[in-house]
Amino acid sequence: MCLLGFSLRIKLHLPVCFAMMGLFFFSLFGRTDHHDAVGVIGEEGRNRMIRLRGYWLRESVRQCWQVAAGVLFLMVFISASAAAEEEAKRFDLSAAYLYSIPIGEEESGTNWSDLYENGQGALLEFAYRVTPHFALYAGTAYHQYHGKELTFGSETGRFNDQTLLSLYAGIKAYLLAPELPQKAGGINPYLRVDIGATQYNGAAFNGASVADRSVQFAYSVGVGADLLTYTSFIFFLEAKYEDHGTPDKAGSSFRAVPIAIGVRYLM
């Protein structure tokens, strides 16, 4: 892209440069005076002709420097405009679909996956690319896990659906660093880590409340990859390990592995 831009700028400036050179040579050799038609008329005539030629040379040089300065200013202006148009887009807005797998134990002998089905949800994130390799982001995510039917002793039933609403902020580190992501293509892997808080909606078994709504500290780490498309739209795929903290009355923290498929828009 740099070679193409340089080539285009040369093509734009060549006519101006040729015009400047033509002006120089015309000023140097093309001007005449009525004294030249008289011929050589002694020492005084030769001295006058030399003085006139010197004056014309100085004027031609001065005019060429003026033209050169104008052309230089024009080149700088065009180059600055082109650079502004090719500036990297540092902000992006991301949206994704989430498919989440609960992992780990709720208490000894009972896994979270025994209580809830795999979940689904969505996320929305806003990011700022501090450098080509690092980005800061903030976001929100919503997960819903449907309760499974199970038996406790002689009682059979199910827990209510568990919905998790998370707010978080973090940092993302990119392996590759294209200067202009909106002009690049290919795959760009990254690592991400964030911290925040998750709200649980409480728990009920067969309609009887067994735990209250609560808000807990949460964190996650993950890996992903951007698919660059030579446009301002980027597709991405990522997987994370999430720990949402321990809900009210639970034996241990709720953990999950969400897989996200989404799109980013560069701004």
Question: What does this entry look like structurally?
Answer:
This protein has 267 residues and is an alpha+beta fold. It is 29% helix and 46% strand. The protein has 3 helices and 14 strands. The protein has an 8-stranded antiparallel beta barrel. The chain has a two-stranded antiparallel sheet with strand order 2-3. Strands 6-7 form a two-stranded antiparallel ribbon. 19% of the residues are buried. Mean pLDDT is 82; it is low at 1-18 and 23-38.
Q: How much of the residues is beta strand, in percent?
A: over 45%
Rg measurement, Å = 36 Å
First-last Cα distance: 21 Å
The coarse silhouette is rod-shaped
| SSE arrangement, N to C | HHEEEHEEEEEEEEEEE
The percent of residues in helical segments reads 25-40%
Largest sheet: 8 strands, antiparallel, barrel
Strand order of the largest sheet: 1-4-5-8-9-12-13-14
What structural category characterises the helix and strand content?
alpha+beta
Query: Could you name the ranges where pLDDT drops below 50 across 5 or more consecutive residues?
Result: 1-18, 23-38
The overall strand count is: 14
- What is the count of DSSP helices, taking H or I runs of 4+ residues? 3
Mean pLDDT value? 82
Short description:
This protein has 267 residues and is an alpha+beta fold.
Please render the helix and strand layout as text:
Layout: H1 2-30, H2 42-85, E1 91-103, E2 105-107, E3 110-111, H3 112-115, E4 119-129, E5 134-145, E6 149-152, E7 155-158, E8 162-174, E9 185-200, E10 203-205, E11 208-211, E12 214-229, E13 233-243, E14 255-266
